[in-house]
Amino acid sequence: MLGLAVGLSARVYDYLDGVLQFLRAIPPPALVTVFLVLFGFGLRMQLAFIMFSIVWPVLLNTADGARSVEPLHLDTCQAFRLSRGERLLRVVLPSALPKMFAGLRLALSLSLIVMVFSELLPGTTNGIGFQITDAYSTFDLPAMWAGIVLLGVLGYLLNELFLVVERRVLGWHHAAQQLVD
Question: Sign of dihedral through CA atoms 102, 168, 181, 98?
């Protein structure tokens, strides 16, 4: 919702764009110490770290999607005297959904990367990243490679599941794209 709000208001977008781009550009590993101080070691810190890392592609793509609604569509909404809520649900959200899904897909892969990184931090005692590091430090190469393969399979399966959901939700969009091509 925040991405839609930012994208729908030119004033809010102009005001926040620089700040959002700055925050997005900070590499998440550079903020590990900040998250450790705020949340301490453990699952809360890992979750906050992952959430901070993945919010940017979703937020910025959603704002961009809301900003890229065809002006003719918005003029048509005015002509039909649609309320703000109807305009949002019937025109803006469907127009923004393809970019929102692009941001979500990027966030999905990024979340796996950041999850593994957060499991490499001191004080972590479980997780795939921890198991890979532990296996590496004890020269248990089969366990290390098993963890790496597990991450690859997990990433592949999550991506495939996401594509199924995306095709279902954006079926109308994909059909329209095929007509244009």
Answer: negative
